[in-house]
């Protein structure tokens, strides 16, 4: 028995030592941004830190807990000179981090007063393969939209720098939310992308649909009155917010019709139930002919 146990135990101890060494490297918080609905953005720097789109890190704040590590998706792009995470204040640990960063105070917080942070990672996810396709469907549910903040930023940096060598030509983005709490910080990113794409006369590069799934018809009636206005009254975007859940069968058929003979990447960050639905639609809408359209499903559950 010991011959079978020693090898895996040795590898496990090596992995723990590597993670401990990486977590001891110095991390500097360069900026703390407070977003509406108790969401904070931590912008950090670490020597030798290299990331890809959609990856995540483990974060420990000794001032809050000396043992707890929590995973957070990176919301910055690899092209930026810092890496960032968005933290929604929903529990004791996040509340402690919120207070440790001085976000509960009105006065300006000096950089040297910010807490020490330990970071382990980054670690890879399925979202890294987004640049392997010419057409992609990105589906985020609630806070599952965070990896796509990194993806959309990086895509735009690459597009502005050298659009001719960028394989990715079309993005279909779907965001499903139960309420409007998560709209504020992410809508700002979409507004920026929307404005820049219009300046470059390429508004068709990104098609997005935002769905409020937790609202019924009576709640949505007030906003439907303003449907004819130039910008959506909730998000401030040109694309109007939709109510209810998307008809995935129709969405897949429409996209398949627009891109015949293509390999289309479907990327999800959301619950298992939605993953099952998208997986079945990807299979049923893919053609048996190798030259036909094929949907390749990639998921990241939370």
TrEMBL record:
Its cofactor is FAD. GO terms for cellular component: monoatomic ion channel complex; NADPH oxidase complex. Its main location: membrane. Signal peptide: none annotated. It is a multi-pass membrane protein. Residues 19-129 form the FAD-binding FR-type domain. It is found in: Cell membrane. GO terms for biological process: defense response; monoatomic ion transmembrane transport; superoxide anion generation. InterPro entries: Cyt_b245_heavy_chain, FAD-bd_8, FAD-bd_FR_type, Fe_red_NAD-bd_6, FNR_nucleotide-bd, RBOH/FRE, Riboflavin_synthase-like_b-brl. It comes from Picathartes gymnocephalus (White-necked rockfowl). Keywords: Cell membrane, Electron transport, FAD, Flavoprotein, Glycoprotein, Heme, Ion channel, Ion transport, Iron, Isopeptide bond, Membrane, Metal-binding, NADP, Oxidoreductase, Phosphoprotein, Transmembrane, Transmembrane helix, Transport, Ubl conjugation, Voltage-gated channel. It comes from the Eukaryota. This is NADPH oxidase 2. GO terms for molecular function: metal ion binding; superoxide-generating NAD(P)H oxidase activity. Catalytic subunit of the phagocyte NADPH oxidase complex that mediates the transfer of electrons from cytosolic NADPH to O2 to produce the superoxide anion (O2(-)). In the activated complex, electrons are first transferred from NADPH to flavin adenine dinucleotide (FAD) and subsequently transferred via two heme molecules to molecular oxygen, producing superoxide through an outer-sphere reaction. PANTHER family: CYTOCHROME B-245 HEAVY CHAIN, NADPH OXIDASE. It catalyses: NADPH + 2 O2 = 2 superoxide + NADP(+) + H(+).
């Amino acid at each position: 028995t010991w011959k079978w146990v020693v090898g895996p135990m040795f590898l496990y101890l090596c992995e723990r030592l590597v993670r401990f060494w990486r977590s001891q490297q110095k991390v500097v918080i360069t900026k703390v941004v407070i977003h509406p609905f108790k969401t904070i953005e931590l912008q950090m720097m670490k020597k030798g830190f290299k990331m890809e789109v959609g990856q995540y890190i483990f974060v420990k704040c000794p001032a809050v807990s000396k043992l707890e590590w929590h995973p957070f998706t990176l919301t910055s792009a690899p092209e930026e000179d810092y890496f960032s995470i968005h933290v929604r204040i929903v529990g004791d640990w996040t509340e402690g981090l919120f207070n440790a960063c001085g976000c509960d105070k009105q006065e300006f917080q000096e950089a040297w007063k910010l807490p020490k942070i330990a970071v382990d990672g980054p670690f890879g996810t399925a979202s890294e393969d987004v640049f392997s396709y010419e057409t992609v469907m990105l589906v985020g549910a609630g806070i599952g939209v965070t990896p796509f903040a990194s993806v959309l930023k990086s895509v735009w940096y690459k597009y502005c720098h050298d659009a001719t060598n960028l394989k990715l030509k079309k993005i279909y983005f779907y965001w499903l939310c139960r309420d409007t709490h998560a709209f504020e910080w992410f809508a700002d990113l979409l507004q920026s992308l929307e404005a820049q794409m219009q300046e470059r006369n390429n508004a068709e590069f990104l098609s997005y649909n935002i769905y409020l799934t937790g609202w019924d018809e009576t709640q949505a009636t007030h906003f439907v009155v303003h449907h004819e206005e130039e910008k959506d009254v909730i998000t401030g975007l040109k694309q109007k917010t939709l109510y209810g859940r998307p008809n995935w069968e129709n969405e897949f058929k429409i996209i398949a019709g627009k891109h015949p003979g293509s390999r289309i990447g479907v990327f999800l960050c959301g619950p298992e139930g939605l993953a099952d639905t998208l997986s079945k639609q990807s299979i049923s809408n893919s053609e048996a002919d190798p030259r036909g359209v094929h949907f390749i499903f990639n998921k990241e559950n939370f």
